[in-house]
Design goal:
The strands form 2 sheets. This protein has a 7-stranded parallel β-sheet, sandwiched between helices. It has a 4-stranded mixed β-sheet with strand order 3-2-1-8. Helix 1 (about 45-55) crosses helix 9 (about 270-280) and helix 3 crosses helix 10. The chain has helices spanning about 45-55, 60-70, 90-100, 115-125, 135-140, 165-195, 215-235, 255-265, 270-280, 290-300, and strands at about 5-10, 15-20, 40, 80-85, 105-110, 125-130, 150, 155-160, 195-200, 240-245, 310-315. The two termini are about 30 Å apart. It is about 40% helix and about 15% strand. Strand 9 (about 195-200), helix 7 and strand 10 (about 240-245) form a beta-alpha-beta unit. The protein is globular, with a radius of gyration of 18 Å.
Length: about 325
């Protein structure tokens, strides 16, 4: 028996979940994955997701909402800085765009979903670019330059290794590992000349812990952790820091879709998916808000974080403490 092979189809902050092999299933298995990604259209999954969370003992964190509404947070001045964010159409990418633009940065926003990235650009005054990061030639042709890079784009495919489509594995590695490499490769020379740069790679708890049926995602995130450290060693002496931010489950539209899919597959309600599958490992029993991740990203851009380099900031509620 196998877990359902389920995938989010290419390749940024805006993705769509489709079945690869819906005939096979493994009751009780978890195929939900922490990350930063979003459905193109949440649709009915949103209602299921909200229903689960409203009945959960751990709803949206009111302290985070209070902080967002008050405008308080890390004191960072990014005036005259340019930030490039991938997967900026929704989820963590969108939250980072809004947060860093509020600090004065000029955002360049990349996403394969044209409508979503333009919407984010309207919210934060950024420059939208519709880009499929699974195409290396496109990345190399963009002529990118930025003071800050937030590598956030990605997608998920879940299948047993013997069922895992090789082309999907390759595509996931291209988007979540090769694309960050190519983007950083493009922007580093100008960062070195300016003597300043911040590379923030949105990784995952799965950059530190493996799960079955997630071969490509776990491999890509582990690879991103290694790439980030190499950038830190090469860039540190020249004013460029590189770090990863590693969240567990973040409240994004992609997670909504995974909850709905899991509930349908195993004949359980959405609340059981949230409580009994998603939140079993973290000691703190709630989802992470995208704005919380964005605040950590903002901190890594401050002068006070200039000696934080080659680090992995784990936001997993205690998952990796086990």
């Amino acid at each position: 028996m196998h877990i359902p092979a389920t995938s989010a189809v290419l390749a940024s902050g805006s993705t769509e979940i489709t079945p690869v092999n819906p005939e096979v299933s493994r009751p009780g298995a978890s195929f939900l994955t922490p990350g930063a990604y979003a459905l193109e259209e949440p649709g009915p999954a949103s209602a299921i997701f909200e229903s689960a969370l409203q009945s959960s003992t751990e709803p949206r964190n009111p302290a985070v909402d209070a902080q967002i509404n008050s405008g308080s947070g890390v004191n960072v001045d990014l005036s005259d800085r340019c930030v490039l964010i991938t997967g900026a159409g929704s989820g963590i990418g969108r939250a980072c765009a809004i947060r860093l633009s509020a600090a004065g940065a000029r955002p360049i926003l990349l996403d394969r979903d044209d409508a979503a990235v333009r919407s984010t650009a309207q919210e934060c005054g950024g420059e939208p670019m519709t880009v499929d990061l699974s195409d290396p030639d496109v990345i190399d042709s963009l002529g990118l330059d930025a003071d800050i890079v937030v590598n956030n784009a990605g997608f998920q495919t879940v299948a047993a290794i013997e069922d895992f489509p090789p082309d999907r594995f390759a595509a996931m590695v291209r988007v979540m590992l090769e694309a960050p490499f190519r983007i950083v490769r493009a922007v580093l020379p100008a960062m070195y000349k300016r003597g300043y740069g911040r590379i923030v790679n949105i990784s995952s708890v799965h950059g530190h812990r493996a799960s079955p049926y997630k071969a490509a995602y776990v491999a890509a995130k582990h690879g991103l952790e290694g790439l980030s450290k190499v950038i830190a060693l090469e860039g540190g002496p020249r004013g460029v820091t590189s770090n990863t931010v590693c969240p567990a489950y973040v409240r994004t539209p992609l997670v909504e879709g995974q909850i709905a899919d899991q509930a349908r597959t195993h004949g359980i309600d959405a609340e059981q998916v949230v409580r009994n599958i998603m939140l079993t490992q973290p000691a703190i029993k709630r989802l992470i808000e995208p704005e919380e991740v964005a605040e950590v990203v903002a901190f890594l851009c401050t002068q006070q974080a200039s000696f934080v380099n080659g680090a992995a900031i784990v936001m997993d509620g205690g998952w990796t403490a086990r």
